[in-house]
Write a structure and sequence with these properties.
- The protein has 87 residues and is mainly alpha-helical.
- The protein has a domain at 22-76.
- The protein is built from three helices and no strands.
- Helix 1 packs antiparallel against helix 2 (23-46) and helix 1 packs parallel to helix 3 (51-76).
- The longest helix is centred in the last third of the chain and has 26 residues, at 51-76.
C-alpha cells in the first residue's frame, strides 16, 4: 500500500465517521476500522516473500494504526466542526 492510498484510507475513515452517530461512537468505529485494516496488512506481512517486504508491510500497518488514531482523535475533538464567527 502506498502513502497516497493510506492518506485516502484516513480520509475515508473520517468521512465514515460523519454519519449520524455520536462523535464517540464514530471515533470508536474509525479506530476499529483502522485496526482491522492494520491486522490485514500484518497478515500479509507474515506471508511476505522477503524480510524487507515484511518490514515494509509492518511499517504500513503501523502507519494505518496511527492515522486511525489521529482520525479518531479529530472526530472526538470535533475537528473542523467550528465556524469562524469573527467576520
Amino acid at each position: 500500500m502506498r502513502t497516497p492510498q493510506i492518506v485516502g484510507l484516513a480520509a475515508a475513515l473520517i468521512a465514515l465517521s460523519a454519519c449520524s452517530e455520536s462523535p464517540r461512537e464514530s471515533a470508536e468505529n474509525v479506530e476499529a476500522n483502522a485496526e482491522a485494516r492494520a491486522e490485514n496488512i500484518e497478515d500479509a506481512a507474515e506471508a511476505a516473500p522477503s524480510e524487507a517486504a515484511e518490514a515494509n508491510l509492518e511499517n504500513q500497518a503501523d502507519l494505518v494504526r496511527n492515522l486511525g488514531d489521529e482520525s479518531a482523535d479529530a472526530v472526538r475533538n470535533g475537528s473542523g466542526a467550528e465556524t469562524n464567527a469573527s467576520e
